[in-house]
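Revision sheet: structure tokens.
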Amino acid sequence: MKNYITLQVQQALAEDIGSGDITAQLIPAKTLSQARIITREDGVFSGGAWVKEVFKQLDSRVLVSLLAKEGERVLAGQTLFKLEGPARALLSGERTALNFVQTLSAIATRCREYADLVAHTQVRLLDTRKTLPGLRLAQKYAVTCGGCFNHRMGLYDAFLIKENHIAAAGSIAKAVAAAHKLAAGKSVEVEVETFDELAQALAAGADWIMLDEFSIEDTYKAVLQTAGKAKLEASGGINKRNLVAMAETGVNYISLGILTKDIKSLDLSMRIIK
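Predicted:
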């Protein structure tokens, strides 16, 4: 993760600063300043490591004091972190640092909101691969800060056999058998759209079954039909309005693309105080 953050910040700074911050050069190089970053709205904090790395790369003399912990609820007007050091570095790193924190905190905030809604159940809320290119690990980290859980990190760490895989393989049974042969021990998940496909996936020995676009009523029936023979994940068409009802069906997991996409950044602001 450390190497990932280092590279990610390098790329972000190169994108923003390019050949140099010409506006920051209006400030004398020897000028020292202090600044604080506040949130203008309630939320859940995430992204402190990215802030530290931004200013470390810009100027090692910058002191970053984090005043909020990862996953901590924060209130509008609260100071999240303070900065002290060369004014040029503070000004040059402001937007990059805030871009990371406001995005990751927004994800953590949404995840905490959704996790709280289903806290009375045993369900785990999962993220998906619907992430911004280049930001997947960061976004999935923020998901955990908000009390939700990671599904697959990518296409490499678990099987998820979907409609097109089944069509190409010839059947659910053939696809599951091939997965077990290719990488014994890796979790094999099958996406199903009907009760017949659910029965096929169970018969084939799937470890995990995704119920795609099942209604609340049909999900109840699927839980009874599965009877603990495989883990069940509800997915598709689930939102804040029907989340609790779906969680109460008894499924093990609910996956939600909206945990990492369609989010509104937390409103943050940096103020020079000296």
